[in-house]
Amino acid sequence: MDQVLQQKKGLVKGVFNKVFKKYDLMNDLMSLGIHRIWKKNLIQMMNPSNNKSLIDVACGTGDVVKLYLEATKNDTSILCVDPNINMIKECKDNLKNYKNIKWKVCSAERLKVPDNSFDFYSISFGLRNVKDINKSLKEAHRVLKKGGRFLCLEFSKIENSNLEIFYKNYSKLIPKIGKIVVGEKKPYEYLVKSIENFISQKQLIEKMKKIILKIVNIEI
Ligand SMILES: C[S@@+](CC[C@H](N)C(=O)[O-])C[C@H]1O[C@@H](n2cnc3c(N)ncnc32)[C@H](O)[C@@H]1O
Cβ(62) to ligand 1 under 6 A? Predict the structure, then answer.
């Protein structure tokens, strides 16, 4: 089992090392810009006020943090976390005009921050890449203050059969788009597989309940 997890860790690192330069462009192309709407909705659900602290895990190039800072008028403390140094560098560059941000190179499974530190924990399209979901959820619970909120944006099972057929066909194009834009199709084959293999909404909710994360709102 450990070997499988280590292999996944190496695979995920390799994937993001190959795509970090064109990550934002590919996100826009693959989702036709829709990921930006999903991220805006996430911030609306958060409804952050000034002085509320945020840890954004699997921060990538910093999209969620940018929206959070715009919503809070840049007046709050934020920690961006990602195990991939190249993604962190892109994130720093994208957020260079904002203040009150810190970065940590670490994984969702081991956040290296004290207990009860944050009002919000966000993870956007990151949970499916972690090698141990249970450990990551426990870490989220540990670092959140009492009454703090966990917000997760993730692909999961499609429950509408027409949409599922559309997605199945569309997902075959994704590695081809990757090949044209990034020059690599393997990372995008991983992306499609990681979505297919990720647990269902119900399974994720069960895991969260076991870790005493109280479910408040789910949008599918
Ligand atoms: C699909 S990107 C999402 C980036 C960003 N949150 C967004 O929504 O655009 C996934 C990110 O998860 C990071 N990641 C991979 N394994 C991780 C882990 N174990 N813990 C935290 N982040 C991880 C990758 O380095 C990558 O930056």
Answer: no
pTM metric for this prediction: 0.91
Domains of the chain: 2-153+161-210 (3.40.50.150)
**What is the distance between the alpha carbons of residues 192 and 7, in angstroms, rounded to a whole number?**
18
Ligand 1 site, residue 30, Cβ cutoff 6 A: no
Q: Return the residue whose CA atom lies nearest to atom 24 of ligand 1.
A: 58
Residue located nearest, by CA, to atom 25 of ligand 1: 84
Q: At 75, is the secondary structure helix, strand, or coil?
A: coil
Contact 100, 74 (CB under 8 A): yes
- 121 C-beta closer than 6 A to ligand 1: no
For the segment 35-69, what is each residue's pLDDT rounded down to a tens digit? 999 999 999 999 988 889 999 999 999 999 999 99
Residue owning the nearest CA to atom 9 of ligand 1:
60
Structure tokens at 106: 């670490």
- Which tops the pLDDT comparison, 62 or 74? 62
4 vs 86: which has the higher pLDDT? 86
Closest-CA residue, ligand 1 atom 19, reads 130
